[in-house]
Amino acid sequence: MVIENEKILVDAFSNKILYCANDYIELEMKNPVSTRYSSHPGDFKKYSTSEIREKFLIEDIFQPNQLTGVYSMEDRLIVGGIHPVDQPVVLRAIEQNKAEFFLERREIGIVNVGAPTQITADGVQYELGHKEALYIGKGVQDVVFHPSQTGPTYLYFNSAPAHQAYPTKKISTREAEVVTLGSLENSNHRTIYKLLVNSVLETCQLQMGMTELKPGSVWNTMPSHTHDRRMEAYFYFDLNEQNAVAHFMGQPDETRVVWMKNHQAVISPPWSIHSGSGTSNYTFIWGMAGENLDYSDMDAVKVTELR
């Protein structure tokens, strides 16, 4: 997959310059996936606003004709986006993997937050509609993400280490396990779609789902919780340019806020709460990896105990 103009030929995934001014060169450019290290809760208390944003917030998830993301040392979850514009994007191994191909020892979950599109996995093509999810298991070698013919293509993904191969499977909101929680009176009326969880399909450790807030509601995951057995990542969307979400994180007695815009994600360590309140209603995707697959395994925190 290449980008070509009069002077250069560039690999769209690895960003390697393959051809330049009539001479082939081997120039390695920036790895599309960066690394974020784990943080101690005691250190977190001392972070400034800019340090919190630098260590936990993922701002520019979608880049044209690329896969980009963050390799988090929190349970080694990879969080990122794929944005094919005018050519397909191929899933290739990254520097952190030290593998022959991306899914050699990993599984991946993808949720389409853009126009309907196609994903090809080892020669099988899957049609993925808006807000539909695709799970691809360990061992699948050839994965291609295609541009949509009807609008912008935005594919959000989480990837976790895998010990066993499970079949590739598409899950729509109709096939998900659906739960409605909260109330308009408490500004947290929301519908949770458990898309890639063990009550719907088999995975090694990855779990993903989507929560839609009803009009008039702004709070998610409130009352809040932590779960020391799993880390979590949130991706916010369905926000226009004039609105934002205040995402709350930290230990229950030492919370901090990260202001987030549309198409941004945040990493939540196991010791941290993960709640948000928007200036309008919105949708977010949650993804987890870690010790177990028990969705209900959480340590609840009363609203009155938050500090």
TrEMBL record:
<keyword id="KW-0413">Isomerase</keyword>
<feature type="binding site">
    <location>
        <position position="232"/>
    </location>
    <ligand>
        <name>Zn(2+)</name>
    </ligand>
</feature>
<keyword id="KW-0479">Metal-binding</keyword>
<keyword id="KW-0862">Zinc</keyword>
<comment type="function">
    <text>Catalyzes the isomerization of 5-dehydro-4-deoxy-D-glucuronate to 3-deoxy-D-glycero-2,5-hexodiulosonate.</text>
</comment>
<dbReference type="GO" id="GO:0016853">
    <property type="term" value="F:isomerase activity"/>
</dbReference>
<comment type="pathway">
    <text>Glycan metabolism; pectin degradation; 2-dehydro-3-deoxy-D-gluconate from pectin: step 4/5.</text>
</comment>
<comment type="similarity">
    <text>Belongs to the KduI family.</text>
</comment>
<dbReference type="InterPro" id="IPR021120">
    <property type="entry name" value="KduI/IolB_isomerase"/>
</dbReference>
<feature type="binding site">
    <location>
        <position position="225"/>
    </location>
    <ligand>
        <name>Zn(2+)</name>
    </ligand>
</feature>
<feature type="binding site">
    <location>
        <position position="227"/>
    </location>
    <ligand>
        <name>Zn(2+)</name>
    </ligand>
</feature>
<dbReference type="InterPro" id="IPR011051">
    <property type="entry name" value="RmlC_Cupin_sf"/>
</dbReference>
<protein>
    <recommendedName>
        <fullName>4-deoxy-L-threo-5-hexosulose-uronate ketol-isomerase</fullName>
        <ecNumber>5.3.1.17</ecNumber>
    </recommendedName>
</protein>
<feature type="binding site">
    <location>
        <position position="274"/>
    </location>
    <ligand>
        <name>Zn(2+)</name>
    </ligand>
</feature>
<dbReference type="InterPro" id="IPR027449">
    <property type="entry name" value="KduI_N"/>
</dbReference>
<dbReference type="Pfam" id="PF04962">
    <property type="entry name" value="KduI"/>
</dbReference>
<dbReference type="InterPro" id="IPR007045">
    <property type="entry name" value="KduI"/>
</dbReference>
<dbReference type="InterPro" id="IPR014710">
    <property type="entry name" value="RmlC-like_jellyroll"/>
</dbReference>
